[in-house]
């Protein structure tokens, strides 16, 4: 086991150093991020490990605030006729009283860089290349450690990338990576580690392991996320509620069904947030359509369905009587009857047995509520969007999870996946029904199948 690669994250104040750490560590709780300058006052570190072996140590540092004055001071440290190289001059500076007083913050940064194998120099790519940044780079270069410039904020509109490339090249820094801590590019991490491997050759193997491990983890999270959504959909497709015939009780039953589905979706949202190591409290409430982890839109509002471009009509005629989003079966043979009979015919004896009583009930005039196809579509669309958003969200993000207009035609218009049509006929597959049998082999098979369809695009 070799020692982990030590990296100091350095740069001007407010360029996103702490944010970069959050995103690389996938830890939204790391350090303190603020739009106010100088929030990070001391050096804070964290480790990235693979299979229990620490491969990378990242150190957050305070921002450099007065590099111009510090460079002047460093130049004065040379005695007449003396020409110190960078590290010698830095070492002499760190012994001075000024390094403990006026330049206390800067000294912390330089000490950390000296104690590290390399530095990530974080840049706000929107900023013009000012003299203070050039001086900052000269001071940092004086530590004699490899520096990899990271052009942060690269997802923002105004960019001065060419200017920065030019200025960095003049200072002898030719490698550079583009990044954005809030909306990291898909291959951002890979590029960052690959560029580092060029600068710090002995760390190549460790960095390659990190890349492979991170990509494997991303795949695993996506698959696990698809399975969570598949479970939600099967639960809701198989959900059945028997209702008495009096209209008042019926309204209450409909409300209870709505509530059950909302709560079930909420559980899925929370599980997805946990899977991606985002916390419910990470984002400020009120900015999120997903308030405290709950969708602001009412799932059963026909307008919500319309906004997402789901066709409302057809079977919704009865839905209108029952409350949108509910498929009301009367006498067993009105709505959803085709699916029901199809399932009976295709499902064999087992299904017929578990279904027999219910069918009988319906023929006696009992009614049963289930969740409308359109609600299943909406659930699928929303959760898939959430999954996609979480997969590309940086752990430094502080604002609302923004979901684009879903271009998910298959889920909007096409027939529901076979797995869900089957689930319709298996009330015992829903954790929301009494006496569920969730480990039935056939249920598991359909959940896997559906997860596969949800995972692929
Ligand atoms: N859009 C965007 N905002 C960022 C990025 N990096 C940091 N921020 C924001 O910039 C501000 C300063 O970030 P912080 O990490 O505290 O900077 P530090 O002082 O260098 O540690 C915070 O409001 C962050 O949310 C980025 O890549 N893109
Ligand atoms: Mg900071």
Count helical runs. Answer: 16
User: What spatial order of strands do you see in the largest sheet?
Assistant: 2-3-1-4-5-6
Question: How many domains?
Answer: 2
Tell me the structural class: alpha/beta
Number of strands: 11
Q: Return Rg in Å.
A: 29 Å
N- and C-termini, Cα separation: 40 Å
What order do the helices and strands follow?
A: EHEEHHHEHEHEHHEHEEHHEHEHHHH
Largest sheet: 6 strands, mixed
Distinct small molecules bound, one entry per kind:
guanosine-5'-diphosphate, magnesium ion
Q: Summarize the amount of helix as a percent range.
A: 40-55%
- Mean pLDDT across the residues is 79
Q: What amount of the residues lies in strands?
A: 5-15%
Topology:
Blueprint: E1 5-11, H1 17-25, E2 44-50, E3 53-60, H2 67-76, H3 86-94, H4 104-114, E4 118-124, H5 131-141, E5 147-152, H6 161-170, E6 177-178, H7 188-199, H8 204-237, E7 240-243, H9 247-275, E8 290-291, E9 294-295, H10 302-307, H11 316-322, E10 326-330, H12 337-363, E11 367-371, H13 373-391, H14 409-413, H15 418-424, H16 441-455
Parallel strand pairs: 1-3, 1-4, 4-5, 5-6
Antiparallel strand pairs: 2-3, 7-11, 8-9, 10-11
Helix pairs in contact: 2-5, 7-8, 8-9, 8-13, 8-15, 8-16, 9-13, 15-16
The protein binds guanosine-5'-diphosphate (GDP) and magnesium ion.
Question: Can you tell me about this structure?
Answer:
It is a single chain. The chain has 2 domains: 5-199, Rossmann fold, CATH 3.40.50; 228-455, no CATH class. Helix content is 48%, strand content 12%. The protein has 16 helices and 11 strands. Strands 2-3-1-4-5-6 form a 6-stranded mixed β-sheet, with helices on both faces. The chain has a 3-stranded antiparallel β-sheet with strand order 7-11-10. The protein has a two-stranded antiparallel ribbon with strand order 8-9. The two termini are 40 Å apart. 38% of the residues are buried. Residues 282-297, 310-356 and 359-364 have low confidence and may be disordered. The structure holds guanosine-5'-diphosphate and magnesium ion. The site of magnesium ion (MG) has 5 residues, from helix 1. Residues 13-19, 33-35, 39-40, 63, 152-153, 156, 180-182, 396, 398 line the site of guanosine-5'-diphosphate.
